[in-house]
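User: I'll paste a sequence; please echo it back and then give the predicted structure.

Assistant: Echoing your sequence first, then the prediction.
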Amino acid sequence: MKSVRMGSQKIFDLLIFKAPLRNMNSLSTEEKYSSHPGSSFQWLLLLIALLLLPTPLLGQKDSVPPKSPSWVDASVWSAATYTALPIVAFDLLHYRTDEAHRSVALHYAHGDIPRWESFAIPLPLVATWGMHWAGVEARSSSSLRMASAHALSAGIAVAMVQGTKRVTKRMRPDGQDAYSFPSGHTAYAFGSAAILDAEYGEQYPWLAASGYALASGVGVARILHDRHWATDVITGAGVGIGAVYIGYLLNDLLWDRHRYSLRDFAPSWGVSPLWLSLDFGYTTIPSSLSDFTPEGWGIMDAFSIRLPLYRRWGVAGRAALGHRSGGDPTDMADHYSLLGSVSYLYPIYSSRFALEGRLGLGYLSESRISTGEITPRKEATPFAASAILGEASCHLQILLRHHTMVSLNAGYQVAPTARPYDRSEKRGMKGGYLGMSVGYLIQ
């Protein structure tokens, strides 16, 4: 039996990019698509969690040390500092921009789109159990201990989501009910991804990154379906990750499992890393052009990836959506951009901090204006033709725990070939942006 387990472990290592360091934990629960949040499926999960609660007391102490501790081994102070605070900061950045994000979502995804997110929620959890049953070594030393950790996490997540919904009574953007905050789908999706990360993230960071990418897609889908505001989704992600941390903390206490300190596993930038990130910022693109006169800062949401090239050099790619309101609040200009950059990363102060400089060139789509009500992109009025986009930016990268980071960003953009859609005059656009990123390091 031992040889079978070793064989399946080797086969899995060949199929997946194996890397040292990383573990996390999470929950899984599928929120039924219903206008009322208290579906029977969620309360069944809570009941299962309560039934499993006393069972670990019958077990024996787990004394086998892990190859490297998971993020759920962090102290409560460290978890609050390095996990909760970045999520809170990201949420505050979106404060008062919910309407703008809804406008962007409906501008690009107006109408019926497939509702796939409910089916995606349990996939990271299914992968976790599939690997465990295949004999791949996990953080939890037995099926019972893994099941009790997941049940506790699920119960905590359901209680936090449903309790908060009933207290806040926030109206959904589509106006169907007052149970918008926080997003249950997003909380359960990030809980499921966090479980995969907790059990296998240190050994297989590509898997953990894929789980979080899928969970992020679930959150974006909830906004595109007009079921949640952006702040609902970000808070839901924090609830899901927090529920998993608390669930594993309680599970370790119940099983009398020794929690290993993370201080001996301090993160360091080392060589040029590979990472994925979600970016949010304020921008002054598009600038004044033709009959459109913008007012204040616009918003920019983006997905970025950085690939190592040579030593501290790398290349980066970014896909972004932009939105800016005009002098008349009913005028809204939307665009998207694709950018490729050369990147240089230089560690400073300590192993946690680094400065990154980027110089990039890309494509700025035609800008379209919605006047009055939110208009689908194909029906909106073009006001600026597509153009070449150049960008120079500086980023302060802060490494949190092994595979997680935040970045403070500032940059300057110029589109020298931008001009009105009717090509009546030649005038370029230029502007700056300030923002923040939350990223996951794979290498």
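Residues 2-264 form one domain. Residues 330 and 372 are 5 Å apart (CA to CA).
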